Amino acid sequence: MRALIRRFDAFLAGQYGLFNFTDDPDCLLRLQNAVAPHRIFLSGQVVEPGEPVLLIHFWSEHLPAASAAGPDLAWAKTIQRAFVESLRVVGNYVQKEPRLADIRAVGGVTILMFAGNRRSGARFMERLGFTVMPYTNPLGRFGEFWENFYTWVLIWTYNPASLRSRKLFQMRRSEIWITAKEFLARFGGESAGRQFLPHDFD
Predict the structure, then answer these.
(1) Rounded CA gap, 4 and 199, in Å?
(2) Residue 193 — φ and ψ, nearest 5°?
(3) Structure confidence by residue, pLDDT tens digits, 20-53
(4) Of 160, 163, 113, whose CA–CA distance to 2 is shortest?
(5) What is the model's pTM?
(6) Which has the closest alpha carbon to 149: 4, 3, 5?
């Protein structure tokens, strides 16, 4: 069953245009060229619907596995550190890729899975410069349930031990966004992003 889900996930990734931009096995992220789904207010800047944005997605195969006992603080710190480093890799890629010169923002939709509860996950993203805002599926709670169910299935497939802290009916998705200019200021360049250390997000 897990092999079937992996193949289906790869199929969906291709259908939606997700792409791997690096061969770094420690990078947690894949990317997708997209357009803003709605008006986004960020740091005095307004991103209008239809303007180009860059979506970040977790690269499920690269997420560190939790121990058999389930997620713990050490695992959370590993995820945090790897995520920050992955953003730096994205920043370097964006700076060097002419096709991304016009993007207005970087972000996406997430269940804020970095720490023990939703609010700590939101604080983590805010410290990195992202604006965290409510997410509404076009189909309402029905649509969000099926999105969460698919996320739950992917976690079961790639990192089943971490489900000890992931209850399907408690999952809540959020949008995270940062302007492209701010993203590059924080994560573009060889040393960018290294000021963010895991103990900053306790």
Answers:
(1) 38
(2) 85, -15
(3) 999 999 999 999 999 999 999 998 899 999 999 9
(4) 160
(5) 0.84
(6) 5
